[in-house]
Design a protein that fits this description.
The structure holds two protein chains of two kinds. By secondary structure, chain A is α/β, with parallel strands linked by helices. Helix content of chain A is 35%, strand content 29%. In chain A, the strands form two sheets. Chain A has a six-stranded mixed beta sheet, sandwiched between helices. In chain B, strands 2-3-8-5-7-6 form a six-stranded mixed β-barrel. In chain B, helix 10 packs across helix 12 and helix 12 packs antiparallel against helix 14. Classes of the chains: A alpha/beta, B alpha+beta.
């Protein structure tokens, strides 16, 4: 595959954790190329290394060995502050437990990333409202997270992840806390945004709903990628 | 950052209110105690100056250490010229030593010649006369004695005493004086060993016509240092000494400084309580939000920005508590300044230390600002532990924090 089209290019990623005296290899030499515009689901049983890989690809964690290039940048050479900046400008995140900022409204949550980027207030609020409308939450802009359902909160998280127009959105078990209807609806929304706007999604999930929605399944087992289906 | 910090404070309103109340109460109590302390000290220092010694005295160089009649102010006009810009009251006095004899006893004392009219504008010694009257214009061989001296000599108002001294040339001078008033100040240095006589007569009597031992100035505390500095610059090269009240009576100033030192220890204790309270609140708030901080880091918020939020929360708690505490503390000080605190049950003790029987609270600006700034500083310091924890957060661990 032509590497120029690759958004993510990982080689030989290894990540070990210590559990008492024992050393556990959560990633055991992962190679992964992910093209721009992909809608891929990292699938596998619990403990297969999905979240660990997602954390490293999201520059939230560092591997013990291997190389990683994202958007052509060798992100493993970055300092913590540079990684934070990289995430701010290049990445969006959706987490399992909604993880919105509790004291901010839906609009303020979405606008927060734009505020970190120094976007003027009027502009960031306008863009936040537009993204909330895009994910079907028009009219709920001023609600706090505890005034929204789980599905609505996850849609706010999607809007927040996309508001800064990142190169890639990384989602860790985004449907895990949702009922099946909300889960399907969320996956449909993300797939639609991928198709309509070309946003790259990499989703870690073992939820069949998520796997059904994937354009590509990246199967993981014991810290390795064992199969890629549908590329 | 401000919005986030404020919303986080409001999020747990009860905990924040308790912290703010603790800061406010601590500061209010501290300011009230400073108000009482400063009220007592300022009344002591004011009274000490106003009763007899004045704020500043000017003598010929060396007079204060070794007071001799011959060590008088050489050129009074030179001193008057230096005092031309001084707007406050100035008294001119003559000081000598004398032996006083009543019918049955005698006692050594300081003989102070004052201009009766002018002295009333400079000191309040005339108000301390408890029996008889103070000296008046036109008096000649009259005198006022302290109560203890009068008792020791066995004399009463209307009696005569003989004062024996040396004139300027060393010749013996003796004269009979009519006792017109007795001073009961409660202060041993005045009630025992002091006789006040008319300046004009004393100058003639001791061959000191037109000569003075000291110029006494009365000024408020704000002007004291500046006036002293200017007078010293002008008069010391001419052979005069310019002494502030506490240069002459350092014990009271040292005592005030010592007591203020104790209050600074109390301030330290209040600060510890304030810092512990704020740190507890901010740390708990921070620990409750570790996951939220992890998410914010994942979104691209740097650690120092997160630390900024924690510091802002801490400062906001401290600032609100400080504003309320300052308002409450100053309110108490203002209230007791108006009504006063009656200490008359301790009359004997407090008079000896020149303290007014009704203490009116007042607070020195440096004590006010030091206390307020120290509380704000404590609020900043209180955020150090939470900040340290925030700076050590790892995004992955924080996001999965339970």
């Amino acid at each position: 595959m032509n590497q120029d089209h690759m958004l993510i290019c990982a080689r030989g990623l290894v990540r070990r954790f210590h559990s008492g005296q024992e050393e556990v290899a959560a990633l055991n030499g992962v190679d992964l190329d992910l093209p721009k515009g992909a809608f891929s689901v990292l699938a596998g049983r619990s403990g297969s290394g999905k979240t660990t890989l997602l954390n490293i690809l999201g520059t939230l964690d560092m591997p013990d060995a291997g190389t990683l290039s994202i958007s052509g940048r060798d992100v493993l050479t970055f300092s913590a502050a540079e990684r934070a900046d990289f995430r701010l400008y290049r990445m969006g995140f959706i987490f399992q437990a909604y993880n919105l900022i509790r004291v901010l409204s839906a609009r303020e949550n979405v606008a927060y990333v734009l505020q970190l980027r120094g976007v003027p207030k009027a502009e960031r609020l306008r863009r936040a409202d537009a993204w909330l409308a895009e994910v079907g939450l028009a009219g709920l802009e001023t609600r706090r997270p505890d005034q929204l359902s789980g599905g609505q909160q996850q849609r706010v998280a999607v809007a927040r992840a996309l508001a800064s127009e990142p190169d890639i959105v990384l989602a860790d078990e985004p449907t895990a806390n949702l009922d099946s209807h909300s889960g399907e609806s969320l996956m449909h929304l993300m797939r639609e945004l991928n198709g309509k706007r070309g946003v790259t999604f990499l989703i870690a999930s073992h939820d069949p709903v998520a796997m059904d929605a994937a354009r590509e399944l990246v199967m993981m087992e014991d810290g390795r990628i064992v199969e890629r289906i549908g590329q | 950052m401000l919005l986030l910090a404020w919303r986080n404070i409001v999020r747990n309103a009860r905990r924040s209110l308790i912290t703010i109340a603790a800061v406010a109460l601590g500061l209010a109590a501290l300011l009230f105690l400073w108000g009482f302390n400063d009220g007592v000290h300022n009344s002591m220092m004011r009274n000490l100056q106003q009763v007899i010694i004045g704020s500043i005295q000017i003598h010929q160089q060396g007079f204060f250490r070794s007071p001799k009649l011959t060590r008088d102010i050489r050129r009074p006009d030179e001193v008057r010229a230096a005092l031309r810009d001084f707007k406050g009251p100035v008294g001119w006095r003559l000081r000598a030593f004398a032996l006083a004899a009543g019918d049955d006893a005698s006692e050594g004392l300081v003989l102070l010649g004052v201009d009766p009219q002018r002295e009333r504008g400079v000191t309040r010694i005339a108000d301390k006369v408890s029996r008889g009257r103070f000296l008046a214009a036109g008096d000649a061989t009259t005198c006022v004695l302290g109560l203890t001296t009068a008792r020791n000599l066995g004399v009463e108002v209307g009696d005569d005493i003989v004062l024996l001294s040396e004139d300027r040339f060393g010749s013996l001078a003796a004269d009979r004086f009519r006792l017109v008033g007795i001073i009961d100040s409660g202060e041993m240095g005045i009630d025992r060993g002091l006789a006040i006589v008319p300046l004009d007569y004393m100058q003639d009597w001791l061959s000191m016509q037109g000569r003075y031992s000291e110029a006494v100035l009365q000024t408020d505390r704000d002007g004291l240092e500046d006036i002293t500095r200017r007078l010293r610059a002008r008069l010391e090269p001419q052979g005069y000494e310019v002494l502030r009240w506490y240069d002459m009576y350092p014990v009271m100033k040292q005592w005030v400084d010592l007591e203020n030192g104790f209050y600074y220890i109390f301030l330290g204790i209040v600060l510890l309580i304030v810092a512990a309270g704020i740190m507890n609140t901010v740390l708990m708030s921070m620990l409750e939000r570790v996951r939220e901080f992890g998410v914010m880091m994942a979104l691209g918020c740097g650690r120092w920005r997160l630390a900024g939020i924690v510091v802002t929360e801490s400062l906001m708690l401290g600032l609100i508590g400080t504003v309320l505490g300052t308002a409450a503390g100053l309110g108490l000080v203002a209230f007791f300044h108006q009504t006063g605190i009656d200490l008359s049950s301790q009359m004997d003790t407090i008079q000896r230390f020149y303290i007014d029987t009704v203490v009116r609270t007042e607070i020195d600006t440096d004590h006010l600002f030091n206390s307020v700034l120290a509380v704000l500083l404590a609020a900043s310091v209180a955020s150090l532990v939470p900040v340290w924890r925030v700076l050590r957060l790892q995004p992955v661990e924080a996001i999965h924090h339970v």
